[in-house]
Write a structure and sequence with these properties.
The complex is a heterodimer of chains A (858) and B (368). With 858 residues, chain A is of the alpha+beta class. Chain A contains 23 helices and 28 strands. Chain B is an alpha/beta fold and 368 residues long. Classes of the chains: A alpha+beta (858), B alpha/beta (368).
């Protein structure tokens, strides 16, 4: 703001008024002063020249008189070569008679003084030939005047007048006093000066005698110089620091000059007075004009100032008080300006509000943390970036990105180049996935839309990193689910087959046993019957395996110390793994209780160890560890568990060859094996999987080629159960006399079970299906001590029948026999405590023991 | 605010109207010399030469744009007037003084000049009394000793052995020194001063009687140590009685010597520094200008006065104030005069040639 400011209106108007006020006064004044000056000068010139001429005439007369005297002497001398006797008397008379003549000499042509008056022996005989005017007088025969000189006798300034005769000349020394008297006498104005100058330019008369005595030279004064050159007239000149107006007239015979001079200051006094008056008037005019100018500017200024103040308020954002109400009468143009200003104010306000609204909208959109917005030049320089984008590339604020190169953040320069190319060609690029890399190296996925406007590119980016991750996880989960479903389907198939096969086996074993019992000990067919029983037993084992995988076997879960289970099978395991492999156990001292079927867990451990052994053909070490484990819900989800909680962890790790990821993903599939044909069934790990899942647990495998394998089992932990729950069941089964309702749709099974029960002393009421069982119970409710029901029956399954029975007589013990999984039953929520489950196929002793246990408990 | 700007505007307009173009102050240079009385001729020549020089300096633009103003004071060969003149010049702000013309006046005003530290640049003062002093007097004229010895040598060379000396004691400082130097040298060379006749200029009853007394001693050379008018007067009386060789001093060798001396001074010998017949273009221009300006022939005093102003002007170009002017001039040391270079020694005295001149057919001419 330090520019040169334009002049203010007030100053401008005042200046104009002053100019207008001054101009005529000034012009008039200059004219008047000039006119007056020239008139004064004319008058002075006329007067002074007249005076000069008058003095000149008087001098002429006066000197002419001296000349006459000397001429008389010259005439008296005549043609004489020597001065006649008595000449001295004549000379003395003349000197005495004439005040102006101080001395008269007579010289001969050699310049020698031959006579002199007043008498002076020093002068007589002296040589005056050194005086040029003496020589000149003789040469011309005319009288000559010397320039001012100093009298040899008196040392006073004098003039010498030489009047030549034929042989002698008369030399008169004329005192300059006479001239001085004339000069003294003459008055020119108040301060006028009269002086006489000889033809050499030397003052010979001046009111100030110093000029004459010091032989001041006047040739430097222009009127004198002009007059000496024959041009009389008037001119200004400088003398002793003053300006003079000088008029010069010549005195012809002598070539002298009379100078009448007056100080210009005095001569022009009237002019000066006039000029001063004019200046005063001018000053007055200036002042008046300035005041009038300023005053007439006031109303305009007031309005303009009001408008200026209004404009300042608008600049400050205050629209409401932008314009003060008009006061009194203004000036039309300014009023119009004010009106235009007012409408401009309202227009500006509306526009500004609209702009602000729009700006707010845009700002809200741009500064929302949802979408990254970047504007960059075609060359890549970032012109603007919002904070959201900045955070995407790991920078704190958008402002920090301005000026940086946009290419610095894209993970793949190739991607960016392609997008840029497309944008430049088509004007935009839509929904392009790109990756950015922050300065910390973190990569993020962005969904990018780019639009080109002229030389700038506007990019809108959405961070889809989370979604990408979720997508990947979902794909993984889907993969796992598909895998699980496949395992499930295979399991169901295997389980279904095994179930039916089990029923057959139950019948075969039953009848074979009956046959064995009925044959005498030495009967030759006993061997065949034993063969049937042995083959049946093996077949039962296979079906158990299949059921175990298919989770279709009936478990007998009870609170069990898992560590104890491991310790129990240690010996067996050592046999399984052989001597080349070293087994180590890492088990805590305190019990690790889980609701498991110990036999099944043993099976799991055996299978795992067998597998490990196969992975370590050259020997190695096998380690079994167990311990408590806490699993959170997220981990649970990942492991396929319904929820997290306290678990018991069993890990079996070997130092074997390990597996690839692909192999590891399939190890739990049945009949999947990497072993040569004929070796291994492909069911070992499938059974492990089935058993653990049936226990509501999870199994996972961690392996890499060459780094061994670790299989981890997680079993849901339980409170420690009674000690006796863990006791061995060695004693022979006890029978009883109670009545048992037997519900079994398969007649062979029903028959074999009935036979076993009756043999143990029980009374058996048979029912062919669930409905039948409920009816029979209703008829014999009072005497039935226990209901043994098959789970899978027509019309009403075992569970439904059990419920109906419980409705008739609550608390009656029910034992469900099933080849299917126990957890299905559990999930259906049977009345606790009254219903027990026993897995099929079931050995007669086991069945009898269970029946006794349930009846006794009830 | 408004009132003030209005007042300022009016003031500015008035100031613009009233203010004249102020010329820079001139540099004032004083001049003290005897312009009246019997020694007037020397003073007037000095004033004229100095005036012409100042006019030339001003015509060529002055000193750094400032004009020179010559303030002329007549000392009337009166000590009191001379002292008052110097005091008044100091008061009026003169930066230097050209002058005085005579050694007796120099003796009177030098103490004031030394006290006021105002430089006196004298064209004509030459008494050996001031020679070699570290004072505020610069002498452009060779010393009396040199000119007296030159004359003594010349007349002895011409075979003169018996001298009568006429000495104006009104300028005793100069004439005493000159006479003494001459006598000593003349006698050293085998001559003899028969008589020394002292007079006071302007107070002589009869020059004829004075001369008659002197010639009675029988000299073969008359030495007149006086101004031009007195020298002319004595010479006029001598010639009435005797054709004896006349010798004058540089002091008397002015226009008035010839005017008043006429044929009486023809053949007389004078010691000069200045050759009035010099044909160098510089001097020729000066002589012409001088004639046009003053309608008079040039004499040595005018030439030396011109040189004196030249010296002062050159000094002022280095130091345009009274203080430091002396040092500036002595620092420069060499100045282009009208007739060759003027060289000042450390004491401010000119070191120049010494010539001998005479008057032949009414004209001053250098003979040696």
């Amino acid at each position: 703001m330090s520019h040169r400011r334009a002049p203010s209106l007030r100053l401008l108007l005042a200046g104009m008024f002053v100019a207008i006020g001054i101009a005529p006064t000034l012009l008039l004044g200059i004219f008047a002063v000039r006119f007056a000056a020239s008139r004064v000068r004319e008058q002075l010139t006329a007067r002074n020249e007249q005076v000069a001429r008058a003095i000149s005439a008087e001098l002429n007369r006066s000197l002419e008189a001296q000349l006459v005297h000397l001429r008389e002497i010259a005439l008296a001398l005549g043609d004489a070569r020597e001065p006649p006797p008595g000449i001295g008397v004549l000379l003395s008379l003349q000197v005495r008679a004439n005040d102006a003549i101080a001395q008269i000499d007579v010289v001969n042509r050699a310049g020698k003084v031959v006579a002199t008056a007043p008498e002076d022996p020093d002068v007589l005989g002296t040589d005056l030939s050194g005086h040029p005017h003496v020589r000149e007088a003789f040469a011309t025969g005319e009288p000559t005047w010397s320039s001012a000189t100093i009298s040899m006798r008196t040392g006073e300034p004098v003039l010498t007048l030489v009047v030549p005769g034929r042989s002698l000349a008369v030399v008169g020394v004329v005192s300059l006093r006479a001239l001085a008297e004339i000069v003294e006498r003459t008055r020119v104005g108040i301060h006028g000066e009269v002086s006489v100058i000889d033809r050499d330019g030397t003052f010979i008369a001046h009111r100030d005698a110093r000029f004459v005595h010091e032989q001041e030279n006047a040739r430097g004064l222009s009127p004198v110089r002009e007059a000496l050159d024959g041009r009389e007239g008037t001119a200004d000149f400088e003398l002793e620091g003053k300006t003079w107006l000088g008029s010069a007239a010549t005195v012809p015979p002598m070539g002298w000059v009379v100078l009448v001079a007056e100080p210009a200051e005095r001569a022009y006094r009237e002019v000066a007075t006039l000029r001063n008056a004019m200046l005063l008037a001018l000053a007055g005019a200036v002042l008046a004009a300035a005041l009038v100018g300023a005053a007439s500017a006031r109303p305009i200024l007031r309005q303009v100032e009001a408008l200026t103040a209004g404009a300042r308020r608008i600049a400050a954002g205050d629209y409401d008080r932008a314009l003060p109400a008009a006061r009194g009468r203004g000036i039309r143009e300014v009023d119009d300006l004010a009106a235009s200003f007012a409408s401009m104010v309202s227009a500006v306000r509306d526009r500004e509000e609209e702009l602000a609204r729009s700006e707010r909208n845009y700002r809200t959109i741009v500064s929302a943390p949802l979408v990254g917005v970047v504007r960059a030049s075609l060359s890549g320089e970032i012109l603007f970036a919002n904070d959201a984008f900045a955070r995407m590339v790991g920078v704190e604020t958008g402002a920090a990105l301005a000026g940086r190169h946009a290419g610095a953040f894209w993970a793949e320069p190739g991607e960016r180049a392609k997008v840029l190319e497309r944008t430049v060609e088509t004007g935009s690029a839509v929904n392009v996935e790109m990756r950015v890399r922050s300065s910390a190296g973190e990569e993020r996925h962005l969904l990018v839309n780019v639009a080109r406007e002229g030389e700038t590119l506007t990019t809108v980016a959405v961070d889809i990193t989370g979604r990408k991750k979720a997508d990947a996880e979902r794909a993984e989960l889907e993969h796992q689910l598909a895998h699980a479903q496949r395992l499930e389907a295979v399991g169901r198939l295997a389980g279904g087959i095994a179930h039916d096969f089990n029923n057959l086996l139950t019948a075969i074993v039953g009848f074979a046993n009956a046959l064995r019992d009925s044959l005498p000990e030495d009967h030759p067919e006993n061997e065949s019957v034993d063969g049937i029983l042995a083959a049946s037993k093996r077949a039962a084992q296979l079906t158990r395996s299949l059921l175990a995988y298919g989770r279709k076997q009936v478990l007998d879960p009870r609170p069990t110390d898992v560590g104890e289970v491991v310790r129990t099978v240690e010996k067996l395991l050592r046999r399984v793994i052989g001597e080349d492999v070293e087994l180590s156990l890492d088990l805590p001292e305190r019990p690790l209780v889980a609701a498991v079927d110990p036999g099944q867990i043993e099976q799991v451990l055996v299978n795992l160890c067998a597998n490990a052994r196969d992975a370590m053909p050259g020997g190695g070490s096998l380690r079994i560890s167990a311990g408590p484990a806490e699993v959170d819900d997220a981990e649970a989800l990942r492991l396929g568990l319904p929820r997290g909680g306290a678990f018991v962890r069993i890990a079996v790790s070997d130092t074997g060859v390990g597996m690839t990821k692909e192999v590891a993903a399939r190890v739990f599939e049945p009949f999947f094996t990497t072993k040569p044909a004929g070796k291994g069934t492909g069911l070992g790990l499938a059974i492990v999987y089935g058993i653990v899942r049936q226990h509501g647990g999870a199994v996972s495998v961690k392996s890499a080629p060459g780094e061994g394998t670790e299989v981890t089992l997680l079993l849901r932990a339980r409170e420690a159960a009674r000690e006796d729950a863990l006791e061995e069941e060695d004693a022979p089964p006890r029978g009883g006399s109670e009545t048992i309702l037997l519900g079994e749709d398969d007649p062979l099974v029903r028959k074999s079970v009935r036979r076993a029960l009756e043999r143990a002393g029980y009374t058996v009421i048979e029912a062919m299906d669930g409905e039948d069982a409920v009816e029979k119970f209703g008829a014999n409710a009072g005497r039935v001590a226990l209901c043994l029901l098959d789970v899978v029956m027509p019309r009403k399954n075992g569970r439904e029948a059990a419920e109906a029975i419980a409705a008739i007589r609550p608390g009656v013990p029910v034992l469900l026999a099933s080849g299917y999984t126990a957890d299905v039953l559990e999930d259906r929520g049977l009345p606790a405590g009254t219903t027990e489950i026993i897995a099929k196929p079931v050995a007669p002793d086991t069945l009898l023991r269970k029946i006794r246990e349930v009846i006794d408990r009830a | 605010m408004a009132g003030r700007s209005r007042a300022a505007l009016a003031g500015a307009v008035l100031a613009a109207l009233l203010a004249g173009c102020k010329k820079p102050e001139p540099i004032r240079v004083g001049l003290v010399a005897g312009l009246t009385g019997r020694h007037y001729d020397l003073g007037i020549s000095i004033r004229n030469g100095a005036t012409l020089a100042v006019e030339e300096v001003n015509a060529s633009g002055g000193i750094g744009g400032r004009r020179l103003a010559l303030l002329v004071r007549d000392d009337g060969q009166d000590p009191a007037i001379a002292r008052a003149a110097v005091e008044s010049l100091v008061r009026e702000g003169a930066v230097a003084i050209v002058g005085p013309a005579t050694s007796s006046m120099a003796a009177e005003i030098l103490p004031i000049a030394d006290r006021e530290k105002i430089l006196l640049v004298s064209p004509t003062v030459s008494s050996s009394r001031f020679q070699g002093l570290d004072d505020f007097l610069l002498m452009l004229h060779p010393s009396t000793a040199r000119s007296a010895q030159a004359m003594s040598s010349t007349v002895v060379g011409r075979g003169h052995r018996a001298a009568v000396v006429f000495q104006d004691v009104s300028n005793e400082v100069y004439t005493g020194a000159w006479s003494g130097e001459f006598a000593a040298d003349f006698e050293r060379r085998g001559g003899k001063v028969l008589k020394r006749i002292r007079f006071v200029s302007g107070k002589v009853e009869s020059y004829a009687a004075l001369v008659k007394e002197g010639l009675a001693a029988g000299p073969d050379v008359v030495v007149i140590v006086a101004n031009a008018l007195d020298t002319a007067s004595v010479a006029q009386q001598v010639r009435k009685l005797s054709p004896v060789q006349i010798v004058g001093t540089e002091w008397s060798f002015t226009n008035d010597l010839v005017r008043h001396g006429g044929s009486a001074v023809e053949g007389a010998l004078f010691p000069v520094k200045v050759n009035l017949q010099d044909v160098s273009p510089r001097y020729a221009r000066f002589r012409e200008a001088y004639g046009a300006r003053f309608a008079k022939p040039v004499d040595f005093a005018a030439v030396l006065a011109h040189d004196a102003v030249t010296v002062v002007a050159e000094g002022l170009r280095k130091a345009p104030a009274r203080e430091g002017l002396r040092a500036a001039i002595l620092g420069v040391g060499r100045f282009q005069g009208l007739q060759g270079e003027t060289v000042l020694d450390a004491a401010g005295d000119s070191q120049v040639r010494q010539l001998v001149a005479t008057v032949r057919e009414g004209k001053q001419r250098v003979v040696e």
